[in-house]
Amino acid sequence: MNDYLQHRTAFLEKARLELERDGRFLAAWLEGSFGRGEADGYSDVDLWVAVEDDVAGSICERNGAARAGTVAARREILDRFGDPAIVHEHHGNAPPGGSFTSSIYRESGLPVDWTFVPLSIARRASASLLLFDLVGIPLRSDGPLPASDERIERLGERYAFFWLLSVPAAKAVRRHNGVRFHSILELMHGALREVESLLDGETMVYSRYSIAPFCPDAESQWQALVELCNRADSMIETLRSAGVKAPERPLDVLPHWLPSELGQ
Fold first, then answer.
1. pTM score, whole prediction
2. Is the predicted pLDDT of residue 60 greater than 70, yes or no?
3. How far apart (Å, rounded) are the C-alpha atoms in residues 246 and 80?
4. Is residue 126's pLDDT more than 80?
5. Residue 66: how many CA atoms within 13 Å on its side-chain side?
6. Does 114 have pLDDT greater than 90?
7. In what order do the strands lie in the sheet with 25-30?
């Protein structure tokens, strides 16, 4: 991985110099693992760039919510740093008014996520690493989430999504598809972890590692699924007290899919 590290270091230095010299860009910083101080030899680059408002219309242009490729103004910027072999966009990952472009460079295999935001709405995460800042970009608020209708709606959606996944997870065990089971179990753990964070009034902390246990056989898979569903079921009254319209007795569904010795 020495070549990868050398390319990544060279990219970051060139990004700092090139972007700062371009009058359209007033600040750039790293979020993700670099921003959290957790970068290792395999980390990619999560690069945010604040764009002068007068030119943000073209650089931050959204051509659909998700697509292959990018608009000409952003492609010109990406091309300055190498040959992007893969370019994909999903603007739902950017703040409203901004754009999100993922690229992987042919020469190094280096993935770079580019988030361009107009200066007027640019906010930097407290867990971020500045490359340069010519104007003093304010920090985003990472404090507790307000008790709002939006929060309650998100709690209800995440909780219902958790239970919706319980049946596909049980099917995967019955079909002896361990890979499928673990992918669903990871989603279930993520949904429940977000519910717990929202109930505590906190923003869920990202983890690059799996948060679901590895279950090598059907017995341990059933056990992991039942324990997780029981944990979720125990939260219903807390959710209702918070104003969430939680489903009635969702745990009733699971025994239909369990082995007879566990379904009672």
1. 0.71
2. yes
3. 51
4. yes
5. 3
6. yes
7. 66-68, 84-90, 99-105, 111-118, 45-51, 25-30, 129-133
Calpha distance 178→220 (Å, rounded): 11
Whole-angstrom distance, CA of residue 9 vs CA of residue 44: 11
Tell how strand 45-51 and strand 25-30 pair up.
Answer: antiparallel
Instruction: Examine the pLDDT at 219 and tell me if it is beyond 80.
Output: yes
User: What is the per-residue pLDDT for 145?
Assistant: 47
Radius of gyration over alpha carbons of the chain, in Å?
22
SS (H, E, C) the chain: CHHHHHHHHHHHHHHHHHHHHCCCEEEEEECHHHHHCCCCCCCCEEEEEEECHHHHHHHCCCCCCEEECCCHHHHHHHHCCCCEEEEEEEHHHCCCCCEEEEEEECCCCCEEEEEEEEHHHCCECCCCEEEEECCCCCECCCCCCCCCHHHHHHHHHHHHHHHHHHHHHHHHHHCCCHHHHHHHHHHHHHHHHHHHHHHCCCCCCCCCCCCCCCCCCHHHHHHHHHHHHHHHHCCHHHHHHCCCCCCCCHHHCHHHCCCCCCCC
CB 89 within 8 A of CB 100: yes
For residues 193 and 229, is the Cβ–Cβ distance under 8 A? no
The answer to whether the beta carbons of residues 141 and 156 sit under 8 Å apart is no
